[in-house]
Design goal:
The complex is a heterodimer of chains A (about 270) and B (about 280).
Chain A lengths: L13 E10 L4 E11 L3 E5 L6 H7 L8 E6 L2 E2 H4 L3 E4 L13 H6 L3 H4 L7 H13 L15 H13 L5 E5 L7 H18 L2 E5 L3 H4 L5 E6 L2 E5 L1 H4 L2 H8 L3 E6 L2 E6 L6
Parallel strand pairs in A: 3-8, 3-9, 6-7, 7-8
Antiparallel strand pairs in A: 1-2, 1-4, 4-5, 9-10, 11-12
Chain B lengths: L1 H13 L1 H27 L2 H21 L3 H21 L5 H22 L5 H8 L7 H20 L1 H9 L1 H6 L4 H23 L1 H18 L3 H26 L3 H18 L2 H9 L1
The chains are: A alpha/beta (about 270), B mainly alpha (about 280).
């Protein structure tokens, strides 16, 4: 099952992890991983806490550098290509006490593109406004970020990543700690964005049920290793019991798989 | 009353040393309150206090060796910036621990250097408590050059400084040269502290940096207006404090800082942010 998936595409259409080790040499978080992700694919990343999901995402924007191996993004070294990548961190990292409106925060996503010593131009402002419109927050454009709800803050984080016109979108638990309605809205938004822009999406989550309808493949991480496959391949009772180290039921309702995790025999 | 007040103001502007003090107060008021905005939003208040105390160790060594105290103050504060900034960025020590250690060490050095002086040096205490009335034309030129340099850098790299003070990790992920910007901000803080030290003193300089920015933070939700309001509070407070200290014949640095603290509490009391919090509750 390891690293199964499509391989009949051009080399420059892939994100490639070639024998990559992340973490510390003495204590790697992920060891010698080999992985290919294709342009336009949507990948759901699951695994227990501390297995290296965030580390994997951060390695694609240069926040964590590999201690071994090589990462290439669409044929370019990762550090060169990272401006094509939009990163949406976990929502708790957002400092809502900072004096900034939604627009102020979203246009920051363009600052690296604009370059040092230069001011944002009207194109940059338009891109930021468009990104805010894309996530459905136009009416909150000039609202302070401190006044937003949890779901709205998550959308602003996505808008900031989108404002840089990325080809790849990395999202770290975008549906965590928001209400069910906001979760569904965020997933619907990501589906739309992927369809309209042919974005390559890597999404870390603990909620398999939520992301299952939108992902092409699921990446499972554990014990420093990664395994990837289609949802049908990965979402089996045996594999999920290993992933969650708990009783799991996989059931199908109206043509969609649902995973129930917990002490299901005594529920 | 009016005529006596006019007389006092007229006397105030008649003296060259008062004119220099006023110019210094305006420049330092603007400089400290602009850089203070980045200090407040980045949560660098403690590191700034550490820089001020490191600078004082440099001042005392300068007096001991007969070298320009401001030069050594700058060297000590830059050493502190790169030491504390380095160990914190590498994750070797938490920021508060590294500053706490260096803060106390710098003061210990300052006390040692004072103890080693063969004769009483009144100038040292001028740097400790500040003496804006003793600002010389040479001091004014130094203040002006640092004023122009720091504000030019802030103007040119405003958006980058905004991004790293808001979300340093995301700024790095987006491809900005975050390490350079991080140390640059610390160097700007160090320059501001060193150049303001003679006017308001080591103990009070950080109030001049933090208080106007903290007051402005209570009033607005955006960084740019916060900078302008902070500069207005810092400059207004410095000028008013200087005039009041002249009228009442009390120390100018302490008057300026007391006035700014009063303004801060008024801003806190009238803060729309507090009203918003209360409404949410």
């Amino acid at each position: 099952m390891k690293n199964s998936g499509r391989i009949d595409r051009k080399r420059d259409e892939r994100i490639v992890f070639d024998n990559v080790t992340l973490g510390y040499i003495e204590k790697p978080v992920l060891s010698d991983i080999n992985l290919e992700i294709f342009r336009g694919e949507s990948i759901g990343i699951i695994g227990p806490n501390g297995c290296g999901k965030t580390t994997l995402l951060k390695s694609l924007v240069g926040l964590i550098k590999p201690v071994g191996g090589r990462i290439t993004v669409f044929g370019q070294p990762m550090m060169t290509a990272r401006r094509q990548t939009g990163y949406v961190p976990q929502r708790e990292t957002l400092d809502i006490s900072y004096p900034a409106t939604v627009f102020d925060m979203v246009i920051m996503g363009r600052y690296a593109r604009i370059g040092l010593f230069r001011r944002p131009k009207s194109l940059d402002r338009k891109r930021a406004e468009q990104a805010i419109a894309d996530v459905g927050l136009s009416e909150y454009m000039h609202v302070p970020i401190a006044h937003l709800s949890g779901g709205q803050r998550q959308r602003v984080l996505i808008a900031r990543a989108l404002s840089a016109d990325p080809e790849i979108l990395l999202l770290d638990e975008p549906t965590a700690a928001v209400d069910v309605r906001a979760q569904r809205e965020i997933v619907a938004l990501l589906k739309t964005l992927q369809k309209e822009r042919n974005l390559t999406i890597l999404l870390v989550t603990h909620d398999v049920n939520l992301i299952y309808p939108m992902v092409d493949r699921i990446l499972y991480m554990a014990d420093g290793q990664v395994f990837i496959g289609t949802p049908q391949e990965m979402l089996t009772q045996e594999k999920l019991q290993l992933i969650y180290n708990a009783d799991v039921i996989v059931t199908e309702v109206a043509g969609q798989l649902y995973v129930i995790v917990g002490d299901v025999h005594h529920g | 009353m009016d005529s006596s007040f006019s007389q006092v103001i007229s006397d105030f502007f008649a003296f060259a040393f008062m004119q220099r003090a006023l110019l210094a107060a305006v420049m330092i008021g603007i400089l400290c309150s602009v850089i203070g905005v980045f200090v407040v939003v980045k949560g660098f208040s403690f590191i700034g206090a550490g820089i001020a105390h490191a600078s004082f160790a440099g001042v005392t060594l300068g007096f001991l060796l007969g070298v320009n105290p401001l030069l050594l103050a700058l060297l000590f504060s830059l050493f502190m910036v790169f030491f504390v900034g380095g160990v914190t960025r590498r994750g070797e020590l938490k920021l508060d621990i590294s500053i706490g250690i260096f803060f106390a060490f710098a003061m210990a050095l300052a006390i040692l250097f004072i103890g080693l002086m063969k004769r009483y040096q009144a100038g040292v205490y001028g740097y400790l408590f500040g003496d804006i009335l003793s600002v010389t034309p040479a001091d004014l030129w130094l203040i002006l050059s640092i004023f122009v340099f720091v504000l030019t850098v802030v103007g040119l790299l405003y958006k980058e400084l905004q991004f790293i003070t808001f979300d340093q990790e995301m700024a790095e992920a987006s491809g900005l040269p975050v390490t350079f910007l991080y140390y640059l901000l610390l160097v700007l803080i160090a320059l501001t502290v060193v150049v303001s030290m003679k006017a308001v003193g080591v103990i009070l300089v950080f109030a001049l940096i933090v208080t106007p920015a903290a007051a402005a933070y209570q009033l607005v939700h955006r960084l740019t207006p916060m900078i302008f309001i902070s500069a207005a509070i810092g400059t207004g407070g410095s000028i008013a404090g200087l005039i009041l200290s002249y009228i009442w014949d009390v120390p100018s640095g302490a008057t300026i800082v007391s006035l700014l603290t009063l303004v801060f509490f008024i801003c806190l009391w009238g803060s729309p942010k507090r009203r918003h919090c209360r409404c949410k509750e």
